Amino acid sequence: MTQETLKPQEKKALIELLYQLADDDFLLAFRGSEWLGLAPHIEEDVAFSSISQDMMGHANLYYNLLENIGEGEADRIAHLRSPNQFRNAIILEEVNGPGTYLKEPDYDWAFTVVRNYFYAVHKHIRLDSLRHSSYEPLAEAARKIMTEQYYHLMHWEIWFKQLMTSTDEAILRMTAAIQKVWKDFGGVLTLGPYYEDIVKANLIDDENVMKKRWNNKIEAVLKEVGASYPGEPRMERGNGRNGVHTEDLKQATATLSEVYATNPATGW
């Protein structure tokens, strides 16, 4: 399937999926960027900055695919939509912790590790499916992103396992972070209200198939580090795929769009 051969219903499903993919990476990359200069040590500062930059590039790839099928300029799509037009999962927009980057940041590293690891596992599963997407430009993008995602996943898995088998305090903080992330991670695992159309168009695997793969992987890792499996991931604050979001997204989009809104000539 190409841009020229897309049927109206397939195009609508593709647009919905691309916004999910782009917005997920866009928001989590932004939250990662807020750790610049604040990571536990200098090597992690460099590594995390690189991962966040990669993820922002992945979001850009998806926004450009949206531009190519008539959704408008990629920069405008990324920076000038209202919060209720975003399709990212709510857990990915959540602030890193109390304070702000410029004023008394008291960020939670355990929360950051858990959120990024759980997301990296799902993103890897999602990309593996997208490599075989019926929409060839998306399949090509997924294959390109997968070369970087392998290292992102390895990075966060090392952090997760090390902290979960470290000191009592580290285990306590990580366990609390798992419980916190679990409350809303179901939002990452869903394809939203156009789920049936997305799957019917063979754009990606069934969400239940991918969710099972994610559950199996996470359950095995939790067992390896001596932690219990919390059960079905939830969406306690709503489904971001439906445009339901928190004040954290408004703060994030206001910051992300500040320069572009002032000078639209500024590109990525």
What's the short version?
This protein is an all-alpha fold and 268 residues long. The protein has 11 helices and no strands.
Key phrases:
268 residues, mainly alpha, Ferritin, 65% helix, globular
Account of the protein in words:
The chain has helices at 8-33, 42-68, 74-79, 90-93, 109-130, 136-164, 168-182, 186-189, 195-200, 207-224, 247-262. With 268 residues, the protein is mainly α. The chain has one domain: Ferritin, core subunit, four-helix bundle (Ferritin). The chain starts with 7 loop residues before the first helix and ends in a 6-residue tail after the last helix. InterPro entries: Aromatic_CoA_ox/epox, Ferritin-like, Ferritin-like_SF, PaaA_PaaC, PaaC. Pfam families: PaaA_PaaC (PF05138). This is Phenylacetate-CoA oxygenase subunit PaaC.
